[in-house]
Design goal:
By secondary structure, this protein is an alpha/beta fold. Helices cover about 40% and strands about 15% of the residues. A 7-stranded parallel β-sheet has the order 9-8-7-12-13-14-15, with helices on both faces.
């Protein structure tokens, strides 16, 4: 269970929500209703309550049902949003923590009688108390006033906690005690802290603990992911701690390691006690994007993800442009926990190539990376073309030894293929094993992939982050495009003009020949201009900018 699910489970069990539900039941007695928005919020709701005991439920609706046939979910009839206007219903109940946005969308579609499942009341007095408490701790009137107006009560509380932690850490430094730093990592494929870790490891003021947690919401087995992750870190010169409790079947509370600072890898899999709201009581919490944001803000993250970001002590972003993006997308404006340092992943481009990665390339001289995304069957971001390309590319590789392939699947592709029913576990593994058996191909599923980028000739992908991460290599990128793909943000749109796009598999052979054999890279000059004008690359490596920021504050 994800932290988002656990959070909403606790919320729905609360007295204030129960009271709200009973009031809504009385208002809608004998009225036919549809619940709109069927994400984790709705999942938690239906796991706590049988909605049919409170309402006459005609069905449920969500945008994800529009382009695929789904008859039932959670034992309720699924209705496509386009069919709602003609449905025999009296009210639409918006089952989302941000109902105003959805209500506006439904009103624009011509719907009436729209009600929120729950709308949080503003607690002006209790927020004022928290703002006064912040002033009492910091003596900073301007910030206390700003946080009162722009932060939630919860965010104000974490601000207070972090100020107290900083006081303790500064005292600790004066006594020459080491600052204990935990790097929490769930998926080695997304590991982006290597050079931050190395810099802090060398600093005698710090004690560094890398802890491998388990990404609970994936379909992979613990015995499949944990050993692989721990082994990966050994290859990077890191002795990682297994942070999974096999008896209790949950991740260990990070408080056990008595950290002063915690680096999160990603916001998706945080459990309750490891959420920044709770960790803030004894540690500074930090996050750096594990990828490189190129997606539209509306497709960027859920409300629970935004809650993680807005309660961090500090978030180090990819660029000044991305600061503005996160201010809006994650609600981080005026909260003073966002700074642009560039991403440490791009520091790999300033390092010499590790020639061990040269050995991964087999066969032909023309080197192609194929990196398929996981969102098959129009799930989530609907970017994946894996179903359309997987057989074609394998057969192409078999017949063309002049090309060398490395397949770099998204870490969630295996579990998505299995959970969606597209492939069974044995079928997926057999498919990847067939790639590995070729004389001119192989599969690479670990992190630390930038030396593969640097030794390749072209990237073929339907992903989003890889498009930006690969761009500074100056090499051509082939985007496997599709109409349903989640739209780019402004940064991604500017990158997009530097991609070669294909709409179907049969367009690839000619493009490979043109780019790799004939060396006709017509977009290269344009890509170099984009790199120069768009990417934020500080004079020193981003990892040093991040460590310098932390040490200067402490």
């Amino acid at each position: 269970m994800s932290s988002e699910y656990l959070y909403w489970m606790d919320f729905f069990k609360s007295k204030r929500f129960k009271k709200n539900l009973i009031k809504l039941k009385k208002k809608l007695k004998n009225k036919r209703v549809v619940f709109y928005c069927n994400g984790i919020y709705f999942d938690a709701l239906t796991d706590v309550y049988n909605l049919s005991e409170y309402f006459t439920v005609s069905g449920i609706s969500d945008i994800r049902y529009e382009n695929k046939e789904t008859s039932t979910y959670k034992n309720y009839n699924c209705i496509k949003p386009s069919e709602l206007i003609n449905a025999d219903i009296d009210y639409i109940i918006v089952s989302s923590p941000n109902p105003d946005f959805i209500k506006k969308y439904l009103l624009e579609k011509g719907h009436k009688n729209i009600l929120p499942l729950y709308k949080e009341r503003k607690h002006i007095f209790s927020k004022a108390v928290k703002a006064l408490e912040y002033f009492a701790v910091t003596k900073n009137i301007p910030k206390a006033l700003k946080y009162y107006f722009f932060c939630t009560k919860e965010e104000l509380n974490t601000k207070i906690n972090y100020e107290k932690v900083l006081m303790r850490l500064r005292t600790k430094r004066n006594t020459n005690n080491k600052i204990k730093i935990v790097f929490a990592c769930e998926e080695n494929q997304k590991w982006g802290y290597q050079f931050v870790y190395e810099l802090m490891k060398k600093d005698s003021r710090f004690e560094v603990l890398p802890v491998v947690l388990y990404p609970i919401i994936t379909k992979n087995r613990v015995d499949f992911t944990q050993p692989k992750n721990i082994e990966f870190f050994k290859t990077q010169g890191i002795e990682a701690i297994d942070g999974y409790d096999y008896e209790k079947k949950r991740n260990i509370d990070l408080k056990k390691y008595e950290p002063d600072i915690v680096f999160y890898q990603q916001p998706w899999y945080l459990q309750g006690e490891n959420h920044p709201v709770n960790l803030s009581k004894y540690a500074l919490t930090i996050m750096i994007p594990y990828g490189y944001t190129t997606l539209n803000e509306n497709d960027w993250g859920s409300d629970a993800v935004k809650r993680v970001y807005s309660n961090l002590w500090m978030f180090f972003s990819e660029s000044p442009y991305h600061n503005k993006f996160y201010e809006k997308a994650a609600g981080m404006r005026n909260k003073d926990n966002l700074t642009a340092t560039g991403t440490p992943k791009l520091d790999y481009y300033r390092k010499p190539v590790n020639h061990e990665y040269e050995k991964l390339w087999k066969g032909g001289k023309n080197r192609i990376i194929w990196a398929p995304h996981h969102s098959i069957n129009n799930q989530g971001l609907s970017m994946s073309n894996f179903q359309e390309y997987y057989a074609f590319l394998l057969e192409f590789a078999k017949k063309h030894n002049e090309y060398s392939f490395i397949v770099k699947p998204h870490p969630a592709l295996r579990s998505t293929c299995i959970s969606s029913g597209f492939m069974k576990e044995a079928e997926y593994d057999a498919y990847m094993n067939e790639w590995n058996s070729l004389k001119n191909a192989g599969v690479y599923t670990d992190g630390a992939y930038f030396d593969i980028f640097k030794t390749s000739d072209v990237l073929v992908t339907d992903c989003s982050s890889f498009l930006a991460e690969y761009f500074p290599s100056e090499k051509p990128i082939i985007l496997l495009d599709r109409p349903t793909r989640a739209p780019f943000d402004e940064f991604g749109k500017k990158l997009e003009s530097g991609f070669y796009k294909v709409q179907k598999p049969t367009e690839l052979p000619e493009l490979f020949y043109k780019l790799l054999v004939e060396k006709e890279d017509t977009l290269k000059k344009h890509r170099l201009s984009i790199i120069k004008n768009l990417f934020y690359i500080p004079k020193e490596i981003s990892s040093k900018a991040i460590t310098d920021f932390i040490t200067s504050v402490i």
